[in-house]
Predict the structure.
Amino acid sequence: MKKIVKQQKLITEKVLNSLPSTFKEAAGILKHPYISPGGPYSTQLWDWDSYWVAYAALKAADKFELQEFKKEAGKYALGSLLNYFDHQGQDGSIPILLDPTDADWFDSKKSPDNNMAKPFIGQFALLLWENGLFPLDQLKESFYNISHFHECYENRYKDDKTGLFFWANDLGIGVDDDPAAWGRPVKSCASIFLNSFLYKDFLAAAVLADAIRRPDMAETYRQKSEALAESIRKYCYDKREKAYFSVDIQCRQNIYHHRCYGRLNSKLTPFWNCLQLKILSWNSLLPFWAGIGSADEMDAFVKENLVPGRLLSDYGVRSLSKDEPMYAPEVARGNPSNWLGGIWIIANFIAMETMKQYGFDKQAESIIDGNIKLLAEDLQANGCFHEYYSPETGLPVCGDNFLSWNALAVLY
């Protein structure tokens, strides 16, 4: 226990000393100060990275009573969101990545055939509002940007048959080589990652609508969130595997014109709207974290899937289950991100929060201890954090001097 406390102190000191390095001043086309992930991404503004760094910074400021630091971090957090609004497309689309010289690195605004920012815009605004960092008049003006962003998701990426939302392609999806989406046909994957976070974004927008005294919009958002939750429960949960999965939405009736028999398959409309992609990963935890999964489902998931040899390792939660054929956590891939089993602190932070939320305190402590061990040993050996780690050895695999959501470790 004493060793863990000492290691936690080492991590906390490193994070608090390093967070200011992620705060960037306005530059080039970025007119507001912003937050970067650090390391090889030190000039860039990424969608969910900036949210989680801001989350870690603001929560740490409260935990350690650093009010001046909170004001400073809040300036860069708000600026990050405003930069995205500055470069929002006419249809409501928001870029995944901005930097001082390129306002839309993934061409998110160019075409619905490309992905756009992951659904953290509502959650980002709510984080700022709850911390007193988003003035009411400014929030009222920005609410249009938030709602227009969600409308774009509905217009571009909603599958009418299931009510689920899909990736346009496999670029910029956050979990870069998630086997449920990466290397598969375009517009085929209704990702459990995407849908769980969008559900949370709808809920955040409902709270913000109440804050600006728009009860009509708040009710609309609550209806949207519940409809999405029902779709996730209906199509993504598998009782046999005791887990939530992404689904393939390509199911359709194929009509063939045969030279003798005429139209074939005319009476064989598939009555199933999608097929589950039964690939066990940390993404399967997200509906529980979001509050969609039931307590009984969570109990079954932990007993069946959060075990050694599957998602659980000595250093925390694997990003992909060890018994999946795609498991290859120590290969430094070309993205260079690897989500094929490596230990990512963001996945583990969410897993830890989920364990506590459902009363699995022992499992939460195990995740915390494993994460602290690998991060502290990285600091002692290399003087920095890395992007992700081996679940077998705890050693870093790739991305030195990466901070980003690793800063969440101060909240353990």
